Amino acid sequence: MLLFLFEFLSFAFSKWAHHSQCMTKNDIRGDKHGELRCTGPSCEIFCEKEFDHYGGPRKVNCKVHQDPLKKTQWNHQIGVCRPCVPIVPKDQGLVKKCRKSATTGIFNCQYTCKESNHVIMPPRRKTFLVGCRCRWKIDKQEICHWRRAKSNKIYDEEIQNWTCEPRKEIVFSKTPVGLPDNLESCSKAMQNNFGI
Q1: Domain boundaries, the chain
Q2: Model-level pTM?
Q3: Which residues are CB-neighbours of 131 under 8 A, at least 6 positions away?
Q4: What are the alphabetically sorted keywords of the record (predicted)?
């Protein structure tokens, strides 16, 4: 009770209000595929695995309206949880390990090959990390996509067609390129020319 009173008073004299003042309008709620967590002026939606926020930001704040008749309102309409495109790689050698970030709430998956001497093709990488992300100002049809951090490129179809292939080793020839095969005879010729 004291904590609630402290939070309420700390926002009373700022442009932000305690989230409880905006909650009275019932215009924000949890989602069946996510959990709404609120503290201070903010409410944030945490979606379950393979879902991300869609149609609005993950986090919103309760602000004091300049018009005293309107009192308080959310600075944005919070997003709702929508699924990412399901991915089933065709190559059985491609392994997917996923976990949800405790700080961002983003569900990330790292792809690797079962065989340690194999690489993912065509990206030619040992590992590849993607996350279930919605770009709520770009994505349509209420679906999210698999993307790398800070990128709008969609990897949904690409991942399904990846393969694991043996890493190609670079083999160097015993004689460096550009030197003659008869290197020893050249050395003797130089010694004779200089009288060594």
Answers
A1: 2-83, 94-166
A2: 0.68
A3: 106, 107, 108, 109, 146, 147, 148, 149
A4: Signal
Which long-range contacts (C-beta less than 8 Å, at least 24 apart) are formed by 129-133? Answer: 130/155, 130/159, 131/106, 131/107, 132/49, 132/50, 132/51, 132/52, 132/84, 132/106, 132/107, 132/108, 133/52, 133/84, 133/106
Structure tokens at 184: 């020893």
DSSP 11: H
Tell me if residue 22 falls in helix, strand or coil: helix
Residue 194, pLDDT > 60, answer no
CB 17 within 8 A of CB 8: no
The residues facing 24 across adjacent strands are none
Helix, strand or coil for residue 5? helix
